[in-house]
Amino acid sequence: MSKLRVSIAVVVLMVAATGFVVAQGHLQPVADAKWGPAPPMLPAGAQIAVLQGDPGKPAPYTVRLKFPANYAIPAHSHPTDENVAVVSGAVFFGMGDKLDKTAGESLAPGGFMSVPAGMNHYAYTKGEATVLLFGIGPVDFKYVNPNDDPRHKD
Predict the structure, then answer these.
(1) Which CATH number is 34-152's, of 3.90.930.12, 2.130.10.10, 3.30.1330.60, 2.60.120.10?
(2) What DSSP letter does each residue of 121-145 carry, written as one string?
(3) C-alpha span between 69 and 145 (Å, rounded)
(4) By percentage, how much of the chain surpasses pLDDT 90?
(5) Is-above-0.85 flag for pTM?
């Protein structure tokens, strides 16, 4: 198992065991997370809590994303690598140019996914789920089908 995956597993286990996460150089109880609407590059309904850094800048960041049941993010890619650890619920991830709810692999709490920059992928939920997303910003979404981009919806 790679050192990165071992590190991620340790962080996820620490979060699950202690209820704390490191944020801005201090411990932050999970209950103190400040949730708000996710940026408009994501379909409506998701919530975000920024734990570290600024995902819009070219620097390290860590955020939590909370998805409602039956949430879907159509096929897209990012200009930087994306790292995701599932914290609660289950999230289905698939690679490809089109969202396919008959495909994809379900990841439960503790599951980890890493997607290299430029790789098309999608995600969806059946129940509520929360993930820890981290990497080097700036975060951006390039939807395979421009009509799927919520920033272009009226």
Answers:
(1) 2.60.120.10
(2) EEEE-SS-EEEEEEEES----EESS
(3) 23
(4) 77
(5) no
